[in-house]
Amino acid sequence: LVVTGSDEHLWKMWALPDGNILMTGEGHTDWISGCCFRPSGTQLVTSSGDSTVRIWELSRRGCILTLRGHGRAVRGCSWHCSGHLLASASRDCTSRIWDVGSERCRQTLRGHKDSVNSIEFLPFSSTVLTSSADKTLSLWDSRTVSRLF
User: Fold this and answer.
1) If pLDDT is split at 50, 70 and 90, which confidence band does 57 have?
2) Would the keyword Repeat be found if you checked this record's keyword annotation (predicted)?
3) For residues 130 and 112, is the Cβ–Cβ distance under 8 A?
4) Extended beta strands in 29-73, E state
5) Residues 148, 128: contact at Cβ < 8 Å?
């Protein structure tokens, strides 16, 4: 399976190798910048130019949660390997760590001077890697919001 986002405000799930569309999700009001499966494979997170992050329940074929808090477009998203946290990167120069269970932002990572364009949890750790249009990479401890590098 592959999931893609588009300028049409939709995400699509494709079967490989035949290329059939298995599912389509709509609800964002601007382009979709990122899609990432939850480690369990039951949900999908998407990020969008509409400044939101959405969680989709694949069995229900619909959005179950919209996370708001970024002031500008969200450029990327990533699940923690536990499936309990997710991260988002935004053009508002911040990144956020979201607690899926409480449906709230746990931490806001501040320090980049320009758009944060990507974010990834390092495998099996609380460390987050961000990249920015300010031409820097940063490593963060998502528990303490400490910038490690």
Assistant:
1) very high
2) yes
3) yes
4) 32-37, 43-48, 52-57, 62-68
5) no
In a domain, 147, yes or no: no
Structure tokens that stand for 68 in this block:
């708001």
The domain spanning residue 135 has which CATH number? Answer: 2.130.10.10
For residue 110, tell me if it sits in a domain.
yes
CA distance 8 to 37: 20
Residue 134 lies in a domain: yes
Do residues 48 and 32 make contact, with C-beta atoms less than 8 angstroms apart?
A: yes
pLDDT tens digits along 69-92: 999 999 999 999 999 999 999 999
| Pair 46, 68: CB distance under 8 Å | no
- Sign of the dihedral defined by the CA atoms of residues 135, 127, 121, 94, in that order: negative
- pTM of model > 0.90: yes
The answer to the question of residue 21 being in a domain is no
Residue-number span of the structural domain to which 134 is assigned: 27-141
Please give the tally of structural domains in the chain: 1
The three-state secondary structure class of 36 is strand
Sort strands 85-90 and 32-37 into parallel, antiparallel or unpaired: unpaired
- pLDDT above 80 for 149: no
